[in-house]
Amino acid sequence: MTILASPNHTHAQPEPVIVPRAELERDPHGTFRRYRPLVPFIRSDDGVFILLRAADLQSLVSDPRTRQVETEFAALRGVTSGPLFAFLQGSMLLSNDEAHRRRRAPMSRTFAFRIVSELRPRISSVAEDILDERRGDGTMNLLADFAAAIPARTISSILGLPEADIPRFTDWVYRMARSLSSTWVPEETPAIEEATRQLTAYVSDLLDERRRVPRDDFLSQFTATVDRQGQLSPSEALMQVVTIALAGSDTTRAALAIQVALLLAHREQWEAVCRDESLIPGAVAEALRYEPSVGSFPRFTLVEIDLGGHVLPAQALVSFSTMSAMRDPALYEDADQFNIRRTDHPRWHLVFGGGVHRCLGEALARMELEEGLRALTRRLPHLRTEGWPQIEASGGIRRIAEMPVFW
Ligand code: HEM
User: How many structural domains is the chain composed of?
Assistant: First the structure.
């Protein structure tokens, strides 16, 4: 059901269409498809404005009339203190201007394309090893046994975690990542808080250890750089490392499972990739467009913004719906068709956001998705699944259900 807000006689502009959150979560693509031609944004009944059209996302993402949300989303869910609040306040992800630049800068070099490329052979062998171990089984849960393992092992190897710690580390990360989903409900908050407390304590110990006994690894270099430059407080340094763990795990695990689900559901395209590996980068880009693992990113308006007569109010929480924008026929031809051969992807794929917060891990994510797919198509070309896995959330980090596969 759609609620039309009561007419406001003091303003000439149309009132926003209000869509109940439950309706949006039940059928996000259907809701976006219905409203995108009619209005540039809708409002969910929890007060968040949802921006629908590609051109508006592309221009407003670096418009000085908007800024990154800081702790406003957390406040909307009732979080105003505690470990999660401290994380959201201290992370580059939700900060602006000078604080954002300081927090992102020490990480930028490590995640640059050239440096990340050196990880490709390692990622590829992780993917192949997992499949070689499972080959005789004839079945696995694609999400837990394969898709989760690739980002988990990659991030753990960047951070230098002992292998035995990976399961509890990733468990905290996945629980904490719920705070970055549109389906985060207040009942989950205690579990998210606890996971945040444990993860930050763990990473804090790790950083202390590298300060005491430096190794030849990323964390030792990171602590040495931030301590030498004196630009980040110890707590800020810690929050940026937690950000990397958080931003780089759930996002990629879901994307990997979703891309396989999409290809298997379009069998002829799966078979084409098995025959011709040059189709892999296009398949990755198309799966990220068609059914993204991150469905939106947030911003806050500083002043009113007029979009063709529809006005976003000042001080509004806005969800930039990449999920809607990447199905916008103004940007993509046959936008509702899954087509790994399409040639109309923009140079800056919208799934990774834009402006100064554009995903720091884009090169790494693409590489994990490409190598994961390459290993699967090489080792298990006869892979199949039953049905379509449930994919949850209209925005933020999305979730995919368990996905049994057979070969
Ligand atoms: C398919 C996988 C991924 C997707 C779809 C994705 C998407 C995004 C998006 C949309 C943003 C921008 C958020 C905003 O503007 O509010 C972002 C930021 C970020 N991502 Fe990713 N990401 C992925 C994987 C990764 C990986 C593997 C890493 C690991 C290093 C990573 C690290 C980050 C960081 C640190 C930020 C914050 C950047 C900043 O605020 O300056 N991401 N990501």
Answer: 1
pLDDT tens per residue across span 155-169: 998 899 998 999 999
Tell me the residue range of the domain where 81 lies. 3-406
Pocket of ligand 1 (CB under 6 A): 92-93, 104, 111, 243-244, 247-248, 251-252, 255, 292-294, 297-298, 351-353, 357, 359-361, 364-365
Which residue out of 288, 359, 397 has the highest number of ligand 1 atoms within 8 Å of its CB and is therefore the one to mutate? Answer: 359
Does the pLDDT of residue 113 top 60, yes or no?
yes
Q: Which long-range contacts (CB under 8 A, 24 or more apart) does 16-21 make?
A: 16/41, 16/42, 16/43, 16/49, 16/310, 17/42, 17/43, 18/42, 18/43, 18/44, 18/45, 19/43, 19/44, 19/45, 19/50, 20/44, 20/45, 21/45, 21/46, 21/182
Instruction: Summarize pLDDT for 51-76 with one digit per residue, the tens.
Output: 999 999 999 999 999 999 999 988 88
- Indicate which CATH number applies to the domain containing 220: 1.10.630.10
- With a cut of 80, say whether residue 200 has pLDDT above it: yes
pLDDT at 8: 45
